[in-house]
Amino acid sequence: xxxxxxxxxxxxxxxxxxxxxxxxxxxxxxxxxxxxxxxxxxxxxxxxxxxxxxxxxxxxxxxxxxxxxxxxxxxxxxxxxxxxxxxxxxxxxxxxxxxxxxxxxxxxxxxxxxxxxxxxxxxxxxxxxxxxxxxxxxxxxxxxxxxxxxxxxxxxxxxxxxxxxxxxxxxxxxxxxxxxxxxxxxxxxxxxxxxxxxxxxxxxxxxxxxxxxxxxxxxxxxxxxxxxxxxxxxxxxxxxxxxxxxxxxxxxxxxxxxxxxxxxxxxxxxxxxxxxxxxxxxxxxxxxxxxxxxxxxxxxxxxxxxxxxxxxxxxxxxxxxxxxxxxxxxxxxxxxxxxxxxxxxxxxxxxxxxxxxxxxxxxxxxxxxxxxxxxxxxxxxxxxxxxxxxxxxxxxxxxxxxxxxxxxxxxxxxxxxxxxxxxxxxxxxxxxxxxxxxxxxxxxxxxxxxxxxxxxxxxxxxxxxxxxxxxxxxxxxxxxxxxxxxxxxxxxxxxxxxxxxxxxxxxxxxxxxxxxxxxxxxxxxxxxxxxxxxxxxxxxxxxxxxxxxxxxxxxxxxxxxxxxxxxxxxxxxxxxxxxxxxxxxxxxxxxxxxxxxxxxxxxxxxxxxxxxxxxxxxxxxxxxxxxxxxxxxxxxxxxxxxxxxxxxxxxxxxxxxxxxxxxxxxxxxxxxxxxxxxxxxxxxxxxxxxxxxxxxxxxxxxxxxxxxxxxxxxxxxxxxxxxxxxxxxxxxxxxxxxxxxxxxxxxxxxxxxxxxxxxxxxxxxxxxxxxxxxxxxxxxxxxxxxxxxxxxxxxxxxxxxxxxxxxxxxxxxxxxxxxxx
Length: 821
Hints:
Elements: E1 8-12, H1 18-27, E2 33-41, E3 47-49, H2 58-63, E4 68-74, H3 79-87, H4 92-106, E5 112-116, H5 126-143, E6 148-154, H6 171-174, E7 180-184, H7 201-214, E8 220-225, E9 228-232, E10 246-249, H8 251-259, E11 279-281, E12 286-289, E13 293-298, E14 304-306, E15 310-314, E16 317-321, E17 326-330, E18 334-338, E19 344-346, E20 349-351, E21 356-358, E22 363-370, E23 374-383, E24 391-396, E25 399-404, E26 417-427, E27 430-438, E28 444-451, E29 455-459, E30 462-467, E31 472-473, E32 479-480, E33 486-493, E34 495-505, E35 518-529, E36 540-550, E37 558-565, E38 573-578, E39 581-586, E40 591-596, E41 599-605, E42 622-630, E43 633-638, E44 643-649, E45 657-681, E46 684-687, E47 693-696, E48 704-707, E49 712-715, E50 734-737, E51 749-755, E52 761-769, E53 774-777, H9 781-794, E54 799-803
Helix pairs in contact: 3-4, 4-5
């Protein structure tokens, strides 16, 4: 039995520090493979020696003959070099191969080479990239068949599944062109990213579950970081004089932070030296800490929150967010609170205590009495059930107001809302009359109020937090606090704007495809809902064929998005339509196609697959497609990143809109938005612990008009939204910082976050020392050994590789088996 099966260890000689040589001297018997990180390749293919000198390694090379000593050749992540080698520009690839032979001849004791080429290009280059590795591999084997070749590969969770854009890499194709492969699953979190585990569990599991399906597991090393990152979160990087907020550190640097050896004022006063405890993340299996943070909480820890803010969880992050704004109303003192039941009515009217619906020639009259003369506000409660049920008249003592709405994106469709009938009306003591009459059949009336002061506004809610800074004990045993003051840092997630929402349909409601809202123009449609779910709104899929449309034929300029699933019996053309426009996935041609009638107006080649019946509900292949029609121009997008694929000029005006398919299709989302108006997901205000209020996140834009009431903007010309702003919006968590506040340790303080837009995530709050505080993640012996065991026993890989020797918790070597037995 091979006792070392799955337990081989690979490292690289990158650091050149004292601990690297100490590990080589004392623990070389625990190492299977070492990449001598001493060679660089340029875009001509020429290799030069750089880094740790080979002469410094000869002592250990001679001491540990069992180790596979590989000559590591790197391009230091330069895309220009990768491209030149791949494309054999001016013979660069040929030169590179001959150079590899040269350095192997120079160091004949080497076991072979380690190829570390990073920052390739997208999937379109995968064949040329694989051919390059095949050429390198054949060169090495032709020179000496006993020489071995290790390749360093980016983390991939599938074909085209690189988080860093390295989609040139296809594991299954490269498997036969290497003896071993080190998958570099370190770097999910980095200097410029949001803080987090360098190698989170979800990424590791995705990569190695995939790798073992398409590669020989016994070739593969699981890549782990021996290092960590310390992200400064008390100010922006530019104000700190740095490009990124993260600083790399070894295990022992992290340990010094725990022991209070370091601080943020150049390891000297005025900031105190405070030993701290680290937390253990029992999911990602690694330690982390919050140096100089005096209070910390997650979004869900709010002591009070107002609707529509609600607690959600994603990837174990407990945050607050709002999915839609609600109307916030205030009435002052309410003198009259009248229900919907009228004193009299005429025409076609549906009457109850709670609701009056006006039909043909319908009207209803209400009498009410004021006790004393005064100035009052009168508000009516209405509902527009659909886009064509959008007009009603109301009068107060004969003074008539017309209430109507034509904006598709207006957020109060199909819900009750309050509107001002009269503001500051002089009402005398005695009887008064309020009358409603039909504008368009079907508008609903829920009653009215007479009050001293009516106001209303759309709101995304707010959340209030209690912060309780307390003193820490420093390295001398003294109780200390910040020397200068405190800062509050908020970790928030903003998003790029999306079209102002008209309708969001995920088919999860208990009433499936209600006839009041939907019409089947052809074919058959139904909704499947997960029968095993306990959720109020279980996961669901629309399924059917033909045409299913909203029960409204007045659509013209709209933005329509769908998430399409092709079932085993599906195929042909399936997608979304607006009148005679049909945007479809054509399974037969493997293209995204736009038709006007029977005329093909544009197409984009892609790859589409059917989902097997066993995966249809739990793991479907989902394809996002969308079209935005403005006048006679249609923009077509696809993928989860909503990438523009092509534009087309059309002549059709509009009509019904919905989903259409020649054959059975499944759909898990159908979203309707405005073609011109956008909702930003970016601004929030904060009332600080010292009582001041600060606004964050709003982006200045051009070529648009702004709606102050609803905080949306409408384009004034037919351009992409991204062209209206110069500021980019991160897809990652961002930090926002307060001014310095002279708070006192021992007191409790309040902070309130007021999102002005929806879809902003309130993730975490940190109250820290204004001289500096951070989030620190690192690797220790427990973390490294856990993942070494996963490599051996879960995925049955060759073993684990660590970047890099000299950064690690030295205790790890005592827990790894000797490679010489």
